[in-house]
UniProtKB/TrEMBL annotation:
Keywords: Phosphoprotein. It comes from Hymenobacter actinosclerus. The lineage of its organism: Bacteria, Pseudomonadati, Bacteroidota, Cytophagia, Cytophagales. The keyword Phosphoprotein applies. Pfam families: LytTR, Response_reg. Signal peptide: none annotated. This is Two component transcriptional regulator, LytTR family. PROSITE patterns: HTH_LYTTR (PS50930), RESPONSE_REGULATORY (PS50110).
Amino acid sequence: MTDAIHCLLVDDKPLALDILTDYVAKVPFLQLAGSSENPLEALNWVGERRVDLIFLDIQMPQLTGLQFLQALDRRAQVVLTTAYAEYALAGFEHDVIDYLLKPIPFERFYQAAQKAQRRLRPAPADPARPHLFVKTEHRMQRINLAEVLYLEGLQNYVLIHTTTEKVIARQTLNSLEASLPAADFVRVHKSFIVALAHIHTVERSRIFMQTGADNSPVIPVGDTYRSAFYGRL
């Protein structure tokens, strides 16, 4: 695959490398360039081989992931992988693509890979779509995207909350997510997607939406999505 993203895996734990290697093999647009338990060796590889993307652990002997980032000098993009949430801010200050908390589910890994693909292999720009059509009980209904506050997944359908109405779409949240402009909407929970333009405040793991009403909706932020959400903010 000529346009594949060449990945380097860096982690001092062999089991973590085995899991990431398996994940990379499942993603069609990723290609494994190498893996290493030694961060110093990995730094040399970046200079000697084609490496587009590095999945990088933080807590390692000899050289921490943050020290690795400083030495890397932006020769490749980075996704941090760690069991420690407290390094998220420092990671995003280095403009990492994503921050994955161990144990990493494949779904979350795939989301990070898609973000890397959008940055490294951007698609040609399309005119922004101001609306989309969704399947309701008996018809296709037009939804103006500027009016969408958030989407709530409820088993096999989605409740779309807008500034003027609530629409029940006979679709899954995953299928609707693929139709939304990524620049304007973000998944924050397995059951919720929010419009960035309508966020009023964020308090720990809760999002307060800006609706103009006294009882503004409160959206939970799931642990799996927290680091990516704060990165978007």
